[in-house]
Amino acid sequence: MADPRALFDLSGRVALVTGASSGLGRQAALTLAAAGARVVGVARRPDALAALKDEIGAQAAVAVADLSDRDALPGLAETVSALFGPPDIVVHAAGVNTRQPADEVTGAGWDRTLALNLGTPFFLSQALVPAMKSRGWGRIVNFASLQTTRAFPGGIAYGASKGGVGQLTRAMAEAWSPHGITANAIGPGFFPTELTRAVFEDQDRAARNAAQTCIGRNGRMADLDGPLLFLCSEASAYVTGQVLMVDGGFTAK
């Protein structure tokens, strides 16, 4: 029997991580690099990306981009592919949550949320899939949310986008998995990131969220590592079209 640990080895793979300058995207980039992948981090903030590159070292490259600009995505795909070669793995961690109540949602806020959270994972993947098809191997990991299936106050645009991510993931699997490309999503619970800062600054709210889980606590960054590595590696070769909730059992209660 082969060493099961080899199933999680990403040596020789190239991974693209969006939203890599902070939060869960940054954690994903560090995890994939530690597993042996060469990692390209994409985000808007050059200073934060430079710090990520310095921490990872020669295995990392970065590209500054506005991921909500759909017209720029084909060019971005070419740019990142020129660094280490076309990505084998794409992790779509970039996202935005305007937290506008339903009666106050603006057209601009709605469009920005849907463009970045739902449009970018599809159109960027679409630009990268041909190279994956040519190799007969690829891993696409989207970021879903508790709001993929639950409604939260002030989350109508964000929830619509993340509900869409669930179906997008299934549709990607239907379209591309016959070519050796799996498409899955991680649905994080409450993790301490820039996107959830307001939640964690409210200690009572953070405590209520922790109590809602089966485990009894909110997420820690390291809780993401195992599920992500599973979905990005050979270990998940027969898993596609799934949303894996990494939420401590929040959605089980």
From TrEMBL:
<dbReference type="InterPro" id="IPR036291">
    <property type="entry name" value="NAD(P)-bd_dom_sf"/>
</dbReference>
<dbReference type="InterPro" id="IPR057326">
    <property type="entry name" value="KR_dom"/>
</dbReference>
<feature type="domain" description="Ketoreductase">
    <location>
        <begin position="13"/>
        <end position="189"/>
    </location>
</feature>
<dbReference type="GO" id="GO:0016616">
    <property type="term" value="F:oxidoreductase activity, acting on the CH-OH group of donors, NAD or NADP as acceptor"/>
</dbReference>
<dbReference type="InterPro" id="IPR002347">
    <property type="entry name" value="SDR_fam"/>
</dbReference>
<dbReference type="Pfam" id="PF13561">
    <property type="entry name" value="adh_short_C2"/>
</dbReference>
<dbReference type="GO" id="GO:0030497">
    <property type="term" value="P:fatty acid elongation"/>
</dbReference>
<dbReference type="InterPro" id="IPR020904">
    <property type="entry name" value="Sc_DH/Rdtase_CS"/>
</dbReference>
<protein>
    <submittedName>
        <fullName>Gluconate 5-dehydrogenase</fullName>
    </submittedName>
</protein>
<comment type="similarity">
    <text>Belongs to the short-chain dehydrogenases/reductases (SDR) family.</text>
</comment>
